[in-house]
Design brief:
The chain has about 210 residues and is an alpha/beta fold. Helices cover about 35% and strands about 25% of the residues. The chain has a seven-stranded mixed beta sheet with strand order 3-2-1-4-5-7-6, sandwiched between helices.
Length: about 210
């Protein structure tokens, strides 16, 4: 049974999605992942996005560890309901709504997200049947919504090839844990320049007002 490992809600048991449609990240992999993210210093105060959230384990762990806001995106009805129960654990401890649940397909969610919305930490743990072109399309939709120093974590089977990174996103590390491989990526130079341009435009609009 999975749990929240650390932070304000550390030790809390997480609700699990019934059946075999989701593939939860093991506590061993999650502990190693968050140890690395702590070293990157990207969790505290971060805006976090958890795509294909399943039970929401990675997102709520981030919320427990001090993320400012967390968005869990999950289309399956049963999994989305479990996400909500796990989100409630963290929100209750925090005394505010840190974690929000969105029942939606990932592609639709990204398509309707406002251009100005940015995330600092993004998790993608897509189902194994999702093919590489489909994953690449999602990563491309994500690029305009990455903060300047964002970290993107893609969790895949160790037998799956490296994701096809879109223009504006670059892999900087990877790590294998048994049957699981984690890929770490960050915005490329083009993406950072685009974010700076949007931010400058916003500043100019405020000055003109």
């Amino acid at each position: 049974m999975s749990r929240i490992i650390a932070g304000a809600a550390g030790g809390s048991t997480l609700n699990s999605v019934p059946g075999s449609l989701t593939r939860p990240t093991t506590d061993r992999v999650k502990e190693a992942l968050f140890s690395r993210l702590d070293a990157f210093d990207v969790i505290a105060g971060a805006r976090v996005l958890d795509l294909y959230a399943g039970s929401g384990s990675l997102g709520v762990e981030s919320g427990s560890r001090g993320a400012d806001s967390v968005d869990l995106v999950e289309f399956d009805a049963k999994a989305s309901a479990v996400c909500q129960r796990n989100a409630d654990l963290v929100n209750t401890v925090a005394g505010r709504k840190v974690v929000s649940v969105h029942r939606s397909k990932v592609e639709s969610f990204l398509d309707r997200t406002a251009e100005a919305v940015r995330w600092d930490l993004v998790f993608l743990d897509p189902p194994y049947p999702l093919d590489e072109p489909a994953l690449a399309a999602v990563l491309a939709k994500l690029v305009p919504h990455l903060g300047e120093v964002a970290v993107v974590v893609v969790e895949r089977s160790s037998r799956t090839p490296e994701p096809a990174w879109p223009e504006g996103m670059e892999r900087f590390a990877e790590k294998k844990y048994g049957e699981t491989r984690l890929w770490f990526a960050e915005p490329g130079v083009e993406a950072v320049e685009a974010v700076d341009a949007v931010d400058l435009e916003a500043v100019n609009e405020k000055v003109e007002d």
